[in-house]
What does this fold into?
Amino acid sequence: MRIAILDCSPLTAWTITRLLPPGVDYDVLPTFEEARRVLSEAPPDAVLIGLTAGRLPWDDLLKICTSCRPEIPYLLYYSLTALPAGEPVPQAVADAAVSPVEIRQLRLAVRDLLDRVGSRDAAAQSPG
It folds into this structure.
């Protein structure tokens, strides 16, 4: 299983990598453009997206994820370089995000994401 981690904060990306179980390969993507390229050209099994300061088209990344076949499951979280008050984020994005400050919640969300990928892969491999 290979996941991509989009986060401009090396500390947050490192924290995320420590939550992954052994055997999960990952690529840390420090820029939005790099993430867009990787998702389009070499889609990972899942992607973790750290919402950061800056007016970025988060919806574009989510559209890439949902348009891939199979869809790329994603997890949105607030990066340690969190959004300043009043920073516009699409409501659907804000509603889906978890906070890395709550490390237990983030660990559970990452585990759930990996379980979804495992279940999807198992279903795709079963005869039927």
